[in-house]
Structures are given as structure tokens and as C-alpha cells.
Amino acid sequence: MILATLEATDRYHIAGLLDDGPMKRDTVWYGYVVLGGSEEMVRLRERGLAHAIVATGDNARRVAIATQLETMGFSLTQVVHPTAVVLRGARVGSGTVVLPHAFVGADSAVGDNVIVSIGAVVGHDSIVGSGAQLCPRATLGGASHIGDQAFIGTGASVLPGVSVGCRAIVGANAVVTQDLPSDVTAVGVPARIIKRRLLPNEGDS
Questions:
Q1: Contact assessment for residue 182 and residue 165, using Cβ atoms and an 8 Å cutoff
Q2: Hey, which of 103, 131, 195, 203 would disulfide with 149, CB 3.0 to 4.6 Å?
Q3: Are 102 and 119 in contact (CB under 8 A)?
Q4: How far, in Å, CA of 5 to CA of 188, rounded?
Q5: d(Cα 166, Cα 124) in Å, to the nearest integer?
Q6: CATH 2.160.10.10 in the chain, residues?
Q7: Fold for domain 2-76?
């Protein structure tokens, strides 16, 4: 969908794709040649190609690759689909993609390398941290706060003024009615925490 969004903007020439996964060099994918893996970044930059977008859905990996690209001198492209609405006063960061029919409300701030997926809603005065992901039809009420690399599942809702911590995962169709801390997984209506992720050195005796 990110590739289709780039095409729909009619502002970019897509030189090719990089993939460290199963797609092999010179494979044609949706009409674009796979130029190789991440080892090609240096050669592309030497050819004067200065803009890139990271299209992986893994939040941590997307941020890591984006950081690597910026270190190498690439500019991360901000992409907003023509059918998406970004209201006056809203700020959308570099490397962020706003997909079809999404809505970003007035005076909200969406960080770098965020995915605002199909039909997702960012309410007015909300803050979405860098590397976060809003899945299709996820809805953030006004003045909500989503931490860095948080994941808001398909159809999930965060009520106005509620905060979701960094790297938290909100399950599909959940309704978050009160603040969630970082590094938890929450599901249900209302959302309840079912898992906490141990950070390095936690639990050591």
C-alpha cells in the first residue's frame, strides 16, 4: 500500500526497491526492480539518489533502518495519499506515510517514520510518537498521546485525552479508556493489560 500511495501522489520517480528478505536481486515486483538488499544503500547514495521511504510494518526495524539511512545522508520522504485529509496546523514527520482515507486532525503532531493506515483517524491536538503505527480504522480521540513505536491495532479506539505508552500494543477492536504504560499488550473493551514485556536486566536477582 505504501508503494501505491507513492504512485498516487504523482510526485516521485521510484528508482527501485531494496529488500533483505525473500525477494532476489533483479526480481520485478509490481513493476519495479528489486535492486538488492541493504548493501545497495551506499551505491545508491553514490549515484545521487537522496530520498527513501521505509516500508516495513515492524516498528522497531522501520526506525532502525530509517536511522541508518539518515546517517548515510538520505532524506526520508513524507508521503500523504491524495484521499487522506491533513488539517491545518497538523504536523507530519519525515518518513511518515498517511495512507488512503486517513484523517489527521487540526493541531495534531505525528512523529517521524509513522504509519497512519487506511481510514485511521488522528483526533485534534493528539500526539503520535516516532515509529508508531495506526492500523486500518484505528481511531485516536482528541488530545490523546501515543508513545514512540506503539502499535494500535485494526479498528481499535483510544478515547480522548488518554495516553498509550511507548512500544505498547493495543489489540484489534480494543477500546482504551485509561492510560496504558509502556511495553504492555492490552486487548478488549475496555482494554485490559494481558502481557508486560520485560526489558533487559528486569527480573534479574
A1: yes
A2: 131
A3: yes
A4: 32
A5: 20
A6: 79-196
A7: Rossmann fold (3.40.50)
Among all chains, which residue has been given the C-alpha cell 508513545? 147
**Could you report the per-residue pLDDT of 122-166, keeping only the tens digit for each?**
999 999 999 999 999 999 999 999 999 999 999 999 999 999 999
Q: Is 199 left (phi over 0), alpha (psi -120 to 50) or beta?
A: beta
Instruction: Identify whether the C-beta of residue 23 lies closer than 8 Å to the C-beta of residue 16.
Output: no
CA distance 117 to 21: 23
pTM of the model: 0.91
Grid coordinates representing 37 are 538488499
Architecture of domain 79-196: 3 Solenoid (2.160)
| Residues belonging to the active site | 124
* Start-end of H helices in the chain: 2-9, 41-46, 59-71
